[in-house]
């Protein structure tokens, strides 16, 4: 795997400490387009696709694109089972530091069955009471020496699929040690996020358009997406004037509010095999951009580009996505990139 090109001495941040889901899923392709019935037996087949959870996806891409001397420390749990062992091995294969990934004795690794209709829509059946549910404050406290070691030079990531209270505790620790604080949440967590006070403990919040609309409690009506985004940013400024906000909108592109200006980056069309994991790839690149001190337009462009490349893979972690593949894709497709991004890709 080839990382981006950069001077290690120029790193703004030198480590990522993140908590979130570690697990895997199976894709089941249903035969027939009608909605699965309550008592229906349905034929289908298992796809040759590997599905991963959010922390694993984000941590993987950050490590692959930055490599040494940047260190990535996932904080989470897997079960004492074959799935958990394999996930640990895969994380270690790309040099993720797994010393804070515990093995739960009394809960299985988080797993899911993702069922798909022929048109690409579908849903998830996800295991409850998994090892991820056991990631608690003690798991964060175990990493306290690293918070001290990387004081003012670390990035903290609070990602879904572990308890919200644990993620809030991570952000509190990160605040105490002057970390750059990054977070994402699911649609079902918007009410809790709004009421928790966590928005005041986040430097970069990454959501999709529907999640931001729900968080800010905005009516869609007949307004354009741009008008809605401007209203969301205005509301977010009242909650935390220093918050940077990334809003993804699928094939449309993404918006990035850096605290002083709103940047829109159109998506780059790619032949999509699976869109699963694209949002996590996008966030990973924003973390990479923060670590390197990239200008907002460069970071946003890289995030959109990598998210686009990621959808060409059957798997939620593209197994070959690195700086070399990004550079080759730019050459082959004649993609025009910002000048501020060229040196990182040697183009």
The overall average pLDDT, rounded, is 92
**Cross-sheet strand order for the largest sheet:** 6-5-1-9-10-11-12-13-14
CATH topological fold name of the domain at 18-184 and 268-333: UDP-N-acetylmuramoyl-L-alanine:D-glutamate ligase
CATH level-4 homologous superfamily of the domain at 18-184 and 268-333:
Ribokinase
Largest sheet: 9 strands, mixed
Report helical residue fraction.
Answer: 25-40%
CATH architecture of the domain at 18-184 and 268-333: 3-Layer(aba) Sandwich
* Series of H and E elements: EEEEHEHEEEHHEHEHEHHEEEHHHH
CATH class of the domain at 18-184 and 268-333: Alpha Beta
Portion in beta strands: 15-25%
User: Got a strand count?
Assistant: 14
- Radius of gyration computed on alpha carbons: 19 Å
Account of the protein in words:
With 347 residues, the protein is an alpha/beta fold. It has a domain at 18-184 and 268-333: Ribokinase (UDP-N-acetylmuramoyl-L-alanine:D-glutamate ligase), CATH 3.40.1190. It has helices at residues 54-66, 82-93, 137-141, 144-149, 164-176, 190-196, 209-216, 225-239, 278-292, 296-310, 323-333, 339-345, and strands at 15-19, 23-30, 44-46, 51-52, 71-79, 101-104, 110-116, 122-126, 154-158, 180-184, 204-208, 244-248, 253-257, 262-266. The strands form 2 sheets. A 9-stranded mixed β-sheet has the order 6-5-1-9-10-11-12-13-14, sandwiched between helices. Strands 2, 3, 4, 7 and 8 form a 5-stranded mixed β-sheet that branches. The two termini are 18 Å apart. The model has no long low-confidence stretch (mean pLDDT 92).
Question: What's the topology here?
Answer:
Elements: E1 15-19, E2 23-30, E3 44-46, E4 51-52, H1 54-66, E5 71-79, H2 82-93, E6 101-104, E7 110-116, E8 122-126, H3 137-141, H4 144-149, E9 154-158, H5 164-176, E10 180-184, H6 190-196, E11 204-208, H7 209-216, H8 225-239, E12 244-248, E13 253-257, E14 262-266, H9 278-292, H10 296-310, H11 323-333, H12 339-345
């Amino acid at each position: 795997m080839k990382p981006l090109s950069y001077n290690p001495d120029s790193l703004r941040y030198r480590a990522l400490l993140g908590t979130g889901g570690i697990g895997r899923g199976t894709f089941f392709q249903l035969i027939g387009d009608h909605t699965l019935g309550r008592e229906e037996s349905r034929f289908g087949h298992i796809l040759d696709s590997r599905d991963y959870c959010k922390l694993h996806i984000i941590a993987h891409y950050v490590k692959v694109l930055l490599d040494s001397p940047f260190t990535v420390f996932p904080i989470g749990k897997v079960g004492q089972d074959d799935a958990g062992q394999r996930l640990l091995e895969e994380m270690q294969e790309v040099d993720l530091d797994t010393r804070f990934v515990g093995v739960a004795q009394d809960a299985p690794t988080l797993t899911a069955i993702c069922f798909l209709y022929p048109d690409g829509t579908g849903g998830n059946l996800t295991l409850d009471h998994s090892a991820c549910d056991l990631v608690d404050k003690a798991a964060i406290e175990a990493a306290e020496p690293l918070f001290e070691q990387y004081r003012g030079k670390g990035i903290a990531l609070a990602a879904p699929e572990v308890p919200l209270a644990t993620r809030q505790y991570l952000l509190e620790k990160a605040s105490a040690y002057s970390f750059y604080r990054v977070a994402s949440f699911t649609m079902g967590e918007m009410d809790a996020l709004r009421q928790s006070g966590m928005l005041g403990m986040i430097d970069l919040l990454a959501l999709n358009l529907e999640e931001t609309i729900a968080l800010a409690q905005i009516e869609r009506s007949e307004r354009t997406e741009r008008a809605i985004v401007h209203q969301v940013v205005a509301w977010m400024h009242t909650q935390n004037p220093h918050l940077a906000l990334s809003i993804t909108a699928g094939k449309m592109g993404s918006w990035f509010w850096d605290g002083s200006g709103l940047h829109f980056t159109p998506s780059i069309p790619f032949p999509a095999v699976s869109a699963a994991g694209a949002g996590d790839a996008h966030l990973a690149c924003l973390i990479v951009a923060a670590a390197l001190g990239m200008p907002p337009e460069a970071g946003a462009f890289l995030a959109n580009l990598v998210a686009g490349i990621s959808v060409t893979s059957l798997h939620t972690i593209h197994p070959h996505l690195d700086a070399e593949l990004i550079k080759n894709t730019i050459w082959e497709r004649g993609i025009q990139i910002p000048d501020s991004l060229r040196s990182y890709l040697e183009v």
